[in-house]
Design goal:
Largest sheet of chain B: 5 strands, parallel
Largest sheet of chain A: 6 strands, parallel
Bound molecules: iron/sulfur cluster
Strand order of the largest sheet of chain A: 1-10-7-4-2-3
Strand content of chain A: 5-15%
Strand order of the largest sheet of chain B: 1-9-6-3-2
Distance between the termini of chain B: 49 Å
Order of helices and strands of chain B: HHEHEEEEHHEEHHEE
Number of helices of chain B: 7
Oligomer: heterodimer
CATH superfamily of the largest domain in chain A: NagB/RpiA/CoA transferase-like
CATH topology of the largest domain in chain A: Rossmann fold
Shape of chain A: globular
Chain lengths: ~475, ~210
Amino acid sequence: MKPIDQARNALAFLEDDTHEHAFDQLIWGLRERRDAAAREVPEWEQLRTLASEIKEHTLSNLARYLELFEARAKRNGVQVHWARDAHEHNQIVYDILSSHNVEWLVKSKSMLTEECDTRAFLGQRGIEVAETDLGERIQQLDDEPPSHIVGPAFQKTPQDVADLFHRVYGSDPNRPDPVYLAQVMREQTRPLILDAQAGMTGANFAVAETGAVVTVTNEGNADLSANVPKLLICSVGIEKVIPGVEQLAVFIRLLTRSATGERITQYTSHFAAPRMGGEMHIVLVDNGRSQRLADERFWPSLKCIRCGACMNTCPVYRRSGGLSYGSTYMGPIGIITMPSVDIHRHSELPYASTINGSCSNVCPVQINIHEQIYEWREVMGAKGEFSATKKAAMKVADKLLSNPRAYRVAAEAGGSALGVLPRFAIYNRLNAWGRRREIPSPAEETFHQWYARNRTGAAQPPETPAETTEAKAVDDERA
Amino acid sequence: MSVREDILTAIREHHPPPRELPEVPDFHRATDNSLSDLFSRALARLDGKTVAEPPTDLQMWLTETFPDAGRICSAVPELEGTVTPAEFSDWAAPADVDVTVVRTPLGVAETGSVLVTEKELEVNTIVVLAQHLVVLLDPADLVENIHDAYHHPSFQQAAYAALLSGPSGSADIGGKTVHPAQGVTTLTVILSPRPASEAIPEGATR
Ligand code: SF4
């Protein structure tokens, strides 16, 4: 298969002013709300460090925690299955469903089942899956993959949705009003939920101590999908396991604040055992994760809690749209995840970045995203997996990263500084996603600016661009 | 080798170098505000309502607040509804409930959340399928933050435990939150001490 040409796809998206503008506004709004939410929590940086350390601890003892989780879940009366890859996952799910004669099921949002293309697999075998998350259902009805991991349909305007619902449900196409459209969806989806023969959910976390699968939603659709039918199947990536509820608290405090700027979602739900008279299955899925664990450069990407903050802050993502990446995960987290799934197909993704470091700065689990993007470029270079058009950008990134000071000036993007370095990186004519129009100077406050504003003592910010080190320095100072 | 062993072996061979599990502090914060105030303000962020003064007559309050409600599911001794959870033949049946009333064993001030489990609900779907949800919360059951909340024994024991922090909503169309999505249309929390006869739930941390 040919490599995905993210830049070309992005250009097509940029041609459409209405969508590009609406998307940029919506996504940037999330980023701003995330900043406000983080500022409200004095221990924010400490929480990020804790979250990162907890994930690193768990991943370095992953086999043990998975065994603990499995043992506890079984004790709770749950049936636990293991799948090496997407196909095995889908086959297990199919076998469970067909042994219960299920022809019809409801499902809440799960990036893992997107990754496994479970809906299509089941559909080909006569089992129909209805998505119950509003955004995911919209994408399903329009036969499109998610454009954002938190809001799958963010790339659509309310008018697009009004047109789509008119086409599918016959609702009023002249009412691009989200309240009305959500109501249409509720009326259409509720009967499906009430009649469903089985329910599927993903997992935000899997708690080894209690055997619980934790879902975080605004809509309550995971609770409905899991509780209304008697048969429940939860698909869980093996990296989702965490030690216990004490650690869960750290992630719950970080996740929604990072994703949407709210303190929590409306429903934070813990499913530990089958409902009365019901049956619960958990499928633990590897699908390349154990391989990634082996890579000393890229294993930290497994810490990801799928908050979407790195996407929201990324100037390339905001201007390209999520579909341009042509992959399950998009934006910075997509760039560092997808090449390990299929290196050739995703060989151009690492160039869809200014490497400005903003993604690493907002990441609640302190993944060194921008450094990994850079390293993926090196991998592509070494494998001959990069096209000539991308060489220039690579050289600039090289310069930036080999010189912390220059890098910091560039990342802070204070008007004129941005004008010199990244201009060349971003707007050179070979670089399609910067071609059409200039990116306004990034409004985000970088760590260095924050530090300068907040520091109480006379200590100078460290020169290294590594956010983790800096965050620690601040905590030390406070202590 | 079984698939399970295969995966676990691959993981064992690939583990990154071991790291310590850090201690998580409780992050308690000095504040002049009462937990009830913090709670109601946090709940309001996601469009949940708090009734700070418990109505003397819950029945009358309910009739005034939800004049059109015909089917009331009560899971509390304080109120006689038209149906109790035990009467539902299957878990899709609460779809015709207008208002569900339930008592929570735990409120979280930081996030405006209330906990429900199968112990309070019997039929879990009564809190999601009903049109409106009313939750009784004893202010004495409030904790400061999410760290405290997870010390509650329910998280070790319950088959289903949900922290509810607002009526069902979605921001999936155009990024602005609208209600309802698939769950309840409104969530109202009444700060109402437990009746004296009702024992404090076993093992509650306070
Ligand atoms: S990489 Fe970090 S910021 Fe991006 S989605 Fe994952 S946790 Fe969120």
